[in-house]
Design a protein that fits this description.
Blueprint: E1 4-10, H1 13-34, H2 52-61, H3 68-76, H4 91-107, H5 110-119, H6 126-233, E2 237-243, H7 248-266, E3 274-276, E4 282-290, E5 296-302, E6 310-312, E7 322-324, E8 330-333, E9 342-343
Antiparallel strand pairs: 1-2, 3-8, 4-5, 5-6, 6-9, 7-8
Helix pairs in contact: 1-6, 2-6, 3-6, 4-6, 5-6
Length: about 350
């Protein structure tokens, strides 16, 4: 009987070597991330604290009440008795002196009344007494008016000084508050600049640590992106293996296998999660969509297999879920991706 010839398609040796290298790098990179301490790239240590100038500004803010003494002094310059502290200590002396001079001048008018009474022949009479009484009454009235005028003048001056003192203290309080507020604003602005600079330094440090941790994985991904077109596009090598003609026993066993195959046709076994998904084993490949994660989904038929049309992925496009089988073809662990392998028809 004729010998049985088995044909296998294998990737080029250099492509197979690249694939193995990529798989080793990817496995090592992913393994290094399993025990990653995320506190090295996240956490409060990457938040800049307040600067010394900001702290100083806050402390000064607590002292904004330093202008209170000026307000208290201004308050003391108001009220019904506030004028008293501004009364001149010499005012009473001025009043007494003025009244003595008034009395002297008033006494000088009495001889003129006596002379008038003598000339009228009424000296010592009742008429002279009435004139003297009227003169004294008017003199006393003028004296009281003079005293009141002097007192009013002193009160007005004291009141004016009290008002001046009140305005001055308010002005000083406003100036003190304004100067302190300007100082706080300046310190706060400079402090914010220092804090922003420190935050930028911490962000740079964080990015450096992040890049250091993920660089092996990024390098492996870039390596895979470079060799993937070679793996999927480079022609495969073909090997032919001949086996001796089967013996009578093997023929019998083959018949049994044929019967078993017929049985499986009517009683197909369930599909496994891991299936041959190498692009070299497929034909009539059609892109029908993408998964949620962006993986291409295809319908296809297996070469030399008339069992129907299947839906799934290309192993070379999902290297993170692909496994190189011992027959030289890649198969996919569908549990690692968001695409379901199934028979369409």
């Amino acid at each position: 009987m004729a010998e049985i010839t088995q044909t296998r398609q294998l990737p080029a040796e250099f492509i197979e070597a690249l694939g193995k290298t990529y798989g080793a790098q990817l496995t090592e990179a992913v393994g290094g991330l399993k025990g990653l301490d995320v506190s090295k790239i996240y956490g409060p240590q990457f938040v800049a604290p307040q600067s010394a100038l900001q702290t100083q500004a806050q402390q000064l803010g607590q002292g904004l009440g330093a202008y209170q003494p000026f307000l208290q002094a201004a308050q003391a310059a108001t009220g019904p008795t506030a004028y008293q502290q501004f009364m001149s200590p010499y005012q009473q002396d001025v009043i007494d002196t003025s009244l003595r001079q008034f009395d002297i001048q008033a006494q000088k008018g009495l001889p003129a009344l006596a002379a008038q009474a003598i000339g009228q022949g009424a000296y010592g009479g009742g008429r002279e007494g009435v004139q003297r009484a009227e003169y004294q009454t008017q003199s006393d009235l003028n004296r009281a008016l003079l005293q009141a005028q002097l007192q009013q003048q002193g009160f007005g001056q004291a009141q004016a000084l009290a008002s001046q003192q009140y305005n001055q203290q308010l002005g000083l309080a406003g100036q003190a508050q304004g100067l302190l507020g300007s100082q706080i604003s300046g310190l706060s602005a400079l402090g914010q600049q220092q804090q922003a600079q420190r935050q930028a330094e911490l962000e740079a440090q964080k990015q450096l640590e992040f890049q250091r941790i993920y660089q092996p994985l990024q390098t492996a991904q870039q390596y895979g992106a470079g060799i993937q077109p070679l793996i999927s596009g480079y022609p495969s090598a073909t090997t032919i293996q001949a086996t001796p003609s089967p013996t009578a026993l093997q023929t019998g066993l083959g018949s049994l296998a044929t019967l078993a195959g017929i049985y499986k046709t009517f009683n197909p076994s369930p599909l496994f999660n891991i299936n041959t998904s190498d692009i070299r084993a497929k034909e009539n490949i059609n892109l029908i969509g993408k998964s949620t994660s962006g993986i291409n989904i295809y319908t296809f038929k297996y070469k030399g297999n008339d069992n129907g049309i299947y839906k799934g992925v290309i192993a070379q496009e999902v290297p993170h879920a692909s496994i190189l089988d011992k027959n030289g073809f890649y198969k996919v662990d569908y549990s690692k991706i968001d695409v379901k392998f199934e028979k369409v028809s």
